[in-house]
Amino acid sequence: MDKNRSAPTPDATLQAAADWWVRLRDPRRPARGEEQWLEWSGGDARRIDAFARVAELGAQLGALDAAAKREFVREFVPAAARAPRWLRFAAAASLVLAAAAGGMFFWRHPRTLPIETESYATAVAVDRDIALSDGSRVALGGATRLTTHFAADRRDIDLSAGEAYFQVAHDTTRPFVVNAGEVSIRAVGTAFNVRRTGARVTIAVSEGRVRIASSEGLANGRLSAADALEAIAGQQISFDPRASGLTVGAISPARATSWREHRLEFVNEPLDSVVANINRYSTHALVLADAKLSGLAFTGTVDPGALDGWLKALPKILPLRVDVGTERVTIAAAERKPR
After folding, report:
1. CA 155 to CA 152: how far, in whole Å?
2. Which residues on neighbouring strands pair with residue 138, listed in sequence order?
3. Which of 88, 113, 253, 266 gives 20 to 30 Å between its CA and that of 282?
4. CATH class of the domain comprising 116-254
5. What is d(CA 56, CA 112) in angstroms, rounded to the nearest whole number?
């Protein structure tokens, strides 16, 4: 390496991520340190990515032998002998970031953190409980697809379809992020439910708190950074691309996971979303005859095991008719009575 070459200055986000990385490893950090970090990281989707870069670079630095570390400090931190240990470490971390921002590395073979990937899926009307390698537990609803991507510095979950209830093992050094379409949910030691129906996502928090933002909307303009919010136990957050932003409502912890007791709860939900979720538990497919019916809102409880009763009651709630066939159930607009 050319010692006369100055390292480029890292941008503000990387610099802040480096500072948080050091602070979280300080045994004398304040009691609310983890909560403050969670608030910071949830404010912008780019922050969690910057923190992951810092953690990876920190792991690479940690892999150096003692002699290499001493040489690193002597070369890049001239005042090391007079600085406290935590300050020397922070300065070294910042310099590593500076090198990374400029495409430079102080070692020839940086180590790539291994990623452990597992996929899980359930059939229609089949629930499943799984234990993840980090100690977290997940309950999968019917017709649900989920993939985990775990590394030494982060835990990512992709919910492709369906519904899952997460009980997250506490680990402040490894953010737990659930991605459901355009929505991302970040949590550290909490319990929450996520239901994905196409692009529509509903999150219900039963314990602790989570940070919710758009994983893609920030880039395409559908959601602004101001739409990122923190949800606590007893709150339900919904995202629908047909509406604007995130909506917040109240929900009891029991209702948040009522599907585990074979009760599907809907609050002012579009009919197409209601039908899609019922179909995850019904072997007799429900079909909307007209896309215009999708916008009708439904509020109520559906028992998939007693679907016939709900279908008979539906025309009394909404202007619809129900035609039961041998292979499917068709829901159509009610015929207008002649005047």
Report:
1. 8
2. 130, 166
3. 253
4. mainly beta
5. 8
Domain with CATH 3.55.50.30 in the chain: 262-333
For residue 204, the SS3 value is strand
CA-wise closest residue to 256 among 294, 222, 207: 207
d(Cα 294, Cα 188) in Å, to the nearest integer?
A: 36
Burial 23-34, CB ≥16 within 10 A → b, else e: bbeeeeeeeeeb
For the chain, give every residue range classified as CATH 2.60.120.1440: 116-254
Contacts of 136 (CB under 8 A, 6+ apart): 155, 166, 167, 168, 169, 176
301-315 pLDDT tens trace = 999 999 999 999 999
What is the rounded distance in angstroms from the CA atom of residue 191 to the CA atom of residue 294?
Answer: 31
Euclidean distance between CA atoms 86 and 21, whole angstroms: 11
Q: Is the pTM of this model over 0.90?
A: no
CB atoms within 10 A of CB 165: 22
Distances (CA, A) of 310 to 57, 217, 317, 330: 56, 36, 10, 14
Read off the pLDDT of residues 55-93 as tens digits, 9 standing for 90 and up. 666 655 555 555 655 555 555 444 444 445 444 455 555
Tokens 């829901």 sit on residue: 331
And the tokens for 295?
């916008």
Q: Is 221 exposed, middle or buried (0-12, 13-18, 19+ CB in 10 A)?
A: exposed
Is the pLDDT at 117 greater than 60? The verdict is yes
CATH class of 262-333: alpha beta
Residue identified by tokens 């406290």 is: 84
Which residue's structure tokens are 């920030």? 218
Contact 120, 127 (CB under 8 A): no
As a whole number of angstroms, the distance between CA 317 and CA 298 comes to 8
255 class by beta-carbon count within 10 Å (0-12 exposed, 13-18 middle, 19+ buried): middle
pLDDT at 14 over 90: no
